[in-house]
């Protein structure tokens, strides 16, 4: 039966490559869109937590919803996704080059092709394992967490690919190494190959997950440094209140009483910068202090009025 007639046969079963079988099995259990939304929510939550922790705040006090966390995740998922995409593209290109070279070599020297595949597998495993061990031993303490996790991701990809070409497909031939294939049935070979690929894909996914989480932490830290270096970007404000807010001179904030008796506001507070006004909350910090020394939250109510102050530049 030709390939074209086999495709028209309703009873014809198309065998999936070993690499796709774990992915198909995962897609049958977890809906891809649900998994993607969950990842966006997680990274948005982690980024928001890291971001406001730099200012001594708990993001739970800001009243963010699930949608808010998903939207905020875009700040920290684009760059990791770009790095992962480039890494995968380079890995696929390298795999095609190695596969074609091994097949050309196998056409003339089958034994040499198998030996070359195993040798490359050992080489990739050694390089990947060395990078992974050095990551866990904090070899790159001078690097930021995102750069360190990026190199760990590359190490895991290298390690996984070395195991793949060394054990799963060392060249043209069965799904596992030829020595193991002599003692296994074809079904056992496919099962072992699927298990190995599932483990390797899990390692790569974990590396990408760790890199994205470290990038979120590093991004939050860099933004805190920028806020601390350029406080004038955030406006000076004056807050009027009908009740005592206990913002005294110990915080570097000046408390006074308005002279107008018709204003209805009994207290006035000067010397603050407004960080953000969102979701019915005002995030402020004393103007003569670093924002990383701590911020505080005021809820927008009818008892509070905010007035922007001009600042000479």
Structure characterization notes:
The protein has 313 residues and is of the alpha+beta class. The protein has two domains: 16-227, no CATH class; 231-309, no CATH class. Helices cover 57% and strands 12% of the residues. Strands 1, 2, 3, 4, 5 and 6 form a six-stranded antiparallel β-sheet that branches. Helix 3 (32-53) packs across helix 5 and helix 5 packs antiparallel against helix 9 (186-229). It starts with a helix and ends with a strand.
Topology of this structure?
Elements (H helix, E strand, L loop, with lengths): L2 H6 L12 H9 L2 H22 L12 H7 L1 H35 L1 H27 L8 H24 L9 H4 L4 H44 L6 E6 L12 E3 L10 E12 L2 E6 L9 E4 L4 E6 L4
pLDDT < 50 runs, ≥5 residues: 1-16, 170-181
Mean pLDDT: 76
What is the overall silhouette? elongated
* DSSP strand content: 5-15%
Q: Count helical runs.
A: 9
**Alpha carbon gap, first and last residue:** 82 Å
Radius of gyration: 29 Å
In short, what is this structure?
It contains 9 helices and 6 strands, in the order H-H-H-H-H-H-H-H-H-E-E-E-E-E-E.
């Amino acid at each position: 039966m030709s390939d074209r007639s086999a495709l028209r046969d309703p009873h014809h079963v198309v065998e999936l490559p070993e690499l796709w079988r774990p992915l198909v099995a995962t897609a049958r259990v977890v809906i891809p869109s649900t998994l993607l939304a969950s990842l966006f929510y997680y990274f948005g939550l982690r980024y928001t937590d890291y971001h406001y922790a730099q200012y001594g705040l708990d993001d739970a006090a800001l009243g963010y919803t699930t949608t808010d966390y998903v939207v905020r995740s875009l700040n920290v998922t684009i760059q990791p996704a770009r790095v992962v995409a480039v890494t995968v593209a380079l890995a696929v290109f390298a795999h095609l080059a190695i596969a074609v070279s091994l097949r050309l070599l196998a056409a003339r020297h089958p034994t040499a092709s198998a030996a070359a595949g195993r040798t490359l597998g050992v080489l990739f495993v050694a390089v990947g394992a060395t990078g992974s061990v050095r990551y866990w031993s904090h070899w790159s303490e001078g690097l930021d967490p995102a750069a360190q996790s990026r190199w760990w991701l590359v190490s895991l990809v290298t390690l996984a690919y070395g195991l793949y070409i060394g054990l799963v497909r060392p060249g043209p031939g069965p799904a596992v190494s030829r020595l193991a294939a002599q003692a296994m049935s074809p079904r056992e070979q496919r099962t072992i190959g699927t298990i190995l690929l599932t483990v390797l894909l899990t390692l790569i996914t974990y590396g990408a997950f760790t890199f994205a989480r470290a990038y979120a932490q590093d991004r939050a830290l860099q933004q805190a440094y920028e806020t601390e270096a350029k406080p004038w970007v955030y406006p000076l404000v004056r807050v009027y209140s009908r009740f005592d807010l206990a913002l005294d001179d110990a915080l570097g904030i000046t408390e006074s009483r308005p002279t107008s008796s018709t204003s209805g506001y009994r207290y006035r507070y000067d010397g603050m910068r407004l960080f953000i006004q969102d979701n019915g909350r005002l995030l402020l910090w004393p103007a003569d202090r670093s924002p990383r020394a701590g911020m505080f939250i005021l809820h927008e109510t009818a008892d509070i009025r905010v007035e922007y102050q001009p600042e000479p530049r």
